[in-house]
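Comment thread on ticket #2218

A.B. wrote:
> Attaching the input chain for the structure job we discussed in standup.
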Amino acid sequence: MPVTFDDIKSAAAELAGNAVRTPMLHSPKLSEMTGADIYVKFENQQVTNSFKDRGAYIKMSSLSDQERSLGVIAMSAGNHAQAVAHHARRLGIPATIVMPETTPFNKVERTRSHGANVVLSGETLADSQITAEGIIEEKGLILVHPYDDDKIIAGQGTTGMEMLQDQPDLDAIVVPIGGGGIISGTAIAAKHIKSSIEVTGVEVKSFPAMYHALRGEPAKCGGSTLAEGIAVKNVTDRTVSICRQYVDDIRLVDEADIERAVMAFLTHQKTLAEGAGAAGLAAVLSDPDHFRGRKVGLVLCGGNMDARILASVIYRELERELRIVTLRIQIDDRPGVLGRIATLIGENGANILEVAHQRMYLDIPAKGAELEIMIETRDSHHADQIVQLIEAQGFVTRVLDASGGQIQTTAN
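C.D. wrote:
> Ran it. Output below, let me know if you need it in another format.
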């Protein structure tokens, strides 16, 4: 095996003072929510808010003076880009970063703020890699690969070593997988320290590259995902072979799982996890029976999320929890009806956010109308109460989901 535990120990010594020794904290609220005993490794507390600081420093600090003078290049959807740019500036190395055109704006600007030359190219990391290879051929820059590199893997592996130093009796570690750098290093360290520990990787269902690679199957990857940091189409022999030897299982989660996990970190842990960073918690939330009663370490691997996307996630989760509810109510089109309904809603503790009348639908009687009211409630039980009170006044009421379809409440 190219990367050994001794390599990871050496990387840990080099990282002292050059990357944050992030906290590993127990989460009573996430534990209550999942039924497992949850501990979180807060890699969102690194300078660039992701674990990528570790591997990027170890790789670039190993370069010779001649290699440093040539400059480095990396392709990244954001976090590796920021880490390479940050440490390149610290080490006095010119850096060029190739990023997909779909990379969130905040990650692009933060990378530029570290002094790197940013090249936006293609829709995916695979497209960016092609561009990066062309620049390397033209200018001779040194590639700092996000995962297919022994130095990178050793640096990322310090995450797993620290987790078991802080919590030696962990039963399982759950790690997000993009290209497989952090799970490779973490698994090597974890299995060396505690051979019985279960190491589980997590990918999104739309990018199951490692899941299928370990099965010798072609992977169909693509589509939009909140977890763009792990939206990787191409894994490499290096990380596949390590995962085959050290990783016990890989789980696939969907977008709703990721969104729920981001919201859980925000509301229960008071910390920001980007989509990829929340993937470990998403896996536990999607199959709590597997983890129930066990001591589980989660790698919150990154916290870089665009504010607009975060606002959308919060809003969507409030809708899923029926804390924001759209009601479609059939009414007689006459004065005073809206006032009656608005008074009833207000007197029972809900807040009206939006109101709209629909009079021209052909399935509405000529003397009738449909009233759409978006309300804010305390929880799903409160939403049910509001619906029951409106229907008790003789109004036929439907609760709509975000796409306009009807969803079920105890009232209907």
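A.B. wrote:
> Thanks. Noting for the ticket: The first strand starts at residue 24 and ends at 26.
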